[in-house]
Fold this protein.
Amino acid sequence: MTASPAIDAMLPPQAETAADEPAEALHLRAAQAGDMAAFEWIVRQHEARLFTFCCRWLRCVEDAREVCQDAFVRAWQALPEFEGRARLSTWLYQIALNLCRDRAKSRVSRQRENTTKIEDLEQPPPCPQSPPDANAEWNSEMQKLERGLALLPEKLRSALMLSAMEGLSHEECATVLNCSVRGIEGRIYRARQMLLQWWNEEGQ
């Protein structure tokens, strides 16, 4: 099986844009002590990436918005018990992913009515200006990628999204998904192989 430049281009490893760590540590300690303003600062640092992740996972803006809000409510409630063994962002992804799984299990026909593609997000990631033909081709590729990701088993899809799209390290992915680093590496490899096979069968 040959490599697909299109998949490699659309799934580059990205470095997570972290909040300023000293400032975050200060706000975290204050929030754990009950300072709501400090927690609101934390929310502002992480809500865009968490919302985008929920959108990609659920493929529904309405569900993603509710899940993202619920994730921060859960985080606020559990914050006093957060021990800092993992990065705060990793812990937030773990909460959001669990809520995404719960929402995916419980929702019914409403999802089909509100399905939103990645390129239709309210706050899409910035990208260089491209000619109209290039933009049309990119949108077509993204739609195809979205379909392929949706067909992957949940464990494989989550590992690939967290690693390739959210920029988490394999160690952080392992924390979020509660498995070993070696398990994460295997899931990402299988996800890429399955996605590549589907991509080639669908045709370019």
